[in-house]
Succinate-semialdehyde dehydrogenase (Pseudolysinimonas yzui), 458 residues
Amino acid sequence: MAIATINPFTGETEQTFEPHSDAEVERRIAAADAAFHALRATTFAQRAEWMRAAAQLLDDEVEELARLITIEMGRPIAGARAEVRKSAKGMRFYADHAEEFLAPEALADPSAVNASAAGTRYAPIGVVLAVMPWNYPLWQVLRFAAPALMAGNTGLLKHASNVPQSALYLDTLFERGGFPTGAFHTLLIPASGVERVLRDPRVKAATLTGSEPAGRSLGSIAGSEVKHVVLELGGSDPFIVLPSADLEKAATVAVTARNQNNGQSCIAAKRFIVHTDVYDDFVRLFTEKVAALTVGDPLDETTDVGPLATRSGRDELAGLVADAVAQGATAVTGGTVPDRAGWFYTPTVLDGITPAMRIYREEAFGPVASVYRVADREEALAIANGTTFGLSSAVWTNDADDEEWFIQNLDAGAVFVNGMTISYPELPFGGVKDSGVGRELAAAGIREFCNLKTIWKG
């Protein structure tokens, strides 16, 4: 894929970029390694000052950045603006809490290990490579970069090739905030260039958010080099609605949960599993609200759903729907590629899904919802867990027993009760099964790329 900004609303190429040469990649790796030795010697207070300054740049430049995100990947402008502000909030969160999260811990009774004192300390590990996707071009990167830098690590970013201007903005952000030169750099390289960087001995670990095949590839390389990885590889999140749920609220939230960011979110609800007693009413409410969404220019403040980020993504989504319909599913609303410029797909609700259909197993990355009728909570759980993914989940119920039962039994990295999945700096984020390994955000996220040292004193 060419490194280029291709406006998904028009399909026109806005700007292209030459990949960095081998010499430039080497220079940037060397700069990151040198910056690590300088950064690790600084205090948490100093790093926090720089982090807050970088966060302020986001707030100051929110309109410019939001427009850039929208032009590069088609996110409606209101959501793009919210992403910039959320990123700044996440940076400040780690500026405020990094020292607390990485504080030394003393063993309460060191005599148990024949010591006068014992415990643990966290230490940074060095240069970390981040391979990041286009769907949240700022937040996805900064929720890694903020904790990594606050821990004293440095970062190299290989961003998605269709958001190069976002990548280049991030290339200078931290240095503008005061961090040492080289503390965070973008590498304009193709996917084929990742292996060389990851195998470099100066690069100590990697994190990737993206497709399952990409995660398996990066994970296998890292494994052969005995390097730590954090992988977030997508999901097919269930949204379970039980008879005691507030149907009006559940249906309203379901529309946002499925169609946020034009449906291109790993944690978007994708499979709506509804008890038969409330199925007809929920589907009616849900379908009415989906059909009422405004599809159009993502720079228009009134637009709910813009184009998909890439033509190939739109075509793949259309193929999933066509396969389901050909095998008996019904598009209750939507199910078409509109006759207009840009990579649009009509917000869709599919009924009558069966295991024979591809969409039963595969992640639909776009504004397409699948609804399933179930007879009881056991059948709901079987469908919810009947996928190789396990990122997040949502359960709508006002029955305390059902609530606890699903929390205990859902195979997912998170369970949201009577709400939609959202990533918060304060809560760990990550999945199980093919959705990945490791965690981002909260205390867990900053500790992923630290060496947990055991300290013993005689």
Observations:
- The CA atoms of residues 324 and 357 lie 5 Å apart.
- The domain at 4-233+433-457 is CATH 3.40.605.10 (Aldehyde Dehydrogenase; Chain A, domain 1).
- The two ends are 58 Å apart (CA to CA).
